[in-house]
């Protein structure tokens, strides 16, 4: 990378209930693609589009620490677990991704490349998000999906804007906001709802979907049992 590039912050929000290998794969994929300087993980407080979370905020923060700390794929990337959405929930305030990204833009300034990454399921629901069009005014948006995924599966108004704003990764890395990128070869596509059920039933496949340190922690604290 050239020496004059701005800082690049990769942002991943989510319930993380529980943290699974799909989250890790998404983070590592875009951290490598963008040569990110920082990975900012933002666990949700109480998402307005979902029912109550099973694991407490404290447990979910600890799961993130166990899953992401020390990964060779993230060597040289600063890891920060950002609790602003949890704090808003504790204060009984509504919490939206646009608010989180505006706060990050205020924190990092006008030049930093802020990249908000999501899975294909989140992209398919993007048209239901609060002020979703404003997201492009404060960050780049990136999504990852299984092979064969198409923007045809996305709301037409989202697909149109996504295609209009599509840029190669180096351009996202070098500019502060406004671009999109879709990676179509990320095989990790995990349903957290199904995963919680399998953890409850102690299904053997969960060992393939959850980082081993996280699985040990879940068993130690009888979460989802």
Folded structure, characterized:
The protein is globular, with a radius of gyration of 17 Å. With 225 residues, it is of the alpha/beta class. Strands 3-2-1-4-5-6 form a six-stranded parallel sheet, sandwiched between helices. α1 links the parallel β1 and β2 (38-43). It has a single domain (8-189), classed as Rossmann fold. The chain has helices at residues 21-34, 57-68, 84-90, 97-108, 120-124, 156-164, 169-174, 192-200, 212-220, and strands spanning 8-14, 38-43, 78-81, 113-119, 140-144, 180-183. It contains nine helices and six strands. 37% of the residues lie in helices and 15% in strands.
List keywords for this structure.
225 residues; alpha/beta; Rossmann fold; 6-stranded parallel beta sheet; 9 helices; 6 strands; globular
Summarize, please.
With 225 residues, the protein is an alpha/beta fold.
């Amino acid at each position: 990378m050239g020496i004059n590039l701005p800082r690049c912050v990769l942002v991943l929000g989510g319930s993380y209930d529980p943290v699974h290998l799909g989250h890790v794969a998404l983070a590592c994929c875009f951290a490598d693609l963008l040569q990110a300087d920082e990975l900012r993980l933002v666990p949700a407080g109480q998402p307005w589009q979902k029912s109550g979370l099973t694991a407490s905020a404290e447990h979910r923060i600890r799961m993130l620490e166990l899953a992401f700390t020390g990964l060779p794929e993230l060597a040289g990337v600063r890891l920060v677990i950002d609790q602003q959405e949890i704090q808003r929930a504790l204060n009984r305030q509504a919490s939206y991704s646009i608010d989180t990204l505006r706060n990050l833009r205020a924190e990092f300034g006008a030049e930093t490349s802020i990249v908000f990454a999501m899975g294909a399921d989140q992209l398919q629901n993007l048209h239901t998000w609060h002020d979703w069009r404003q997201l492009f005014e404060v960050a780049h948006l990136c999504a990852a999906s299984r092979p064969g995924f198409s923007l045809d599966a996305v709301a037409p108004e989202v697909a149109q804007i996504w295609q209009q704003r599509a840029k190669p990764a180096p351009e996202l890395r070098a500019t502060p906001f406004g671009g999109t990128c879709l990676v179509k070869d990320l095989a990790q596509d995990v349903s957290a709802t199904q995963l919680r059920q399998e953890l409850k039933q102690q299904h053997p496949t969960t060992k393939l979907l959850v980082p081993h340190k996280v699985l040990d922690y879940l068993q130690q604290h009888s979460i989802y049992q």
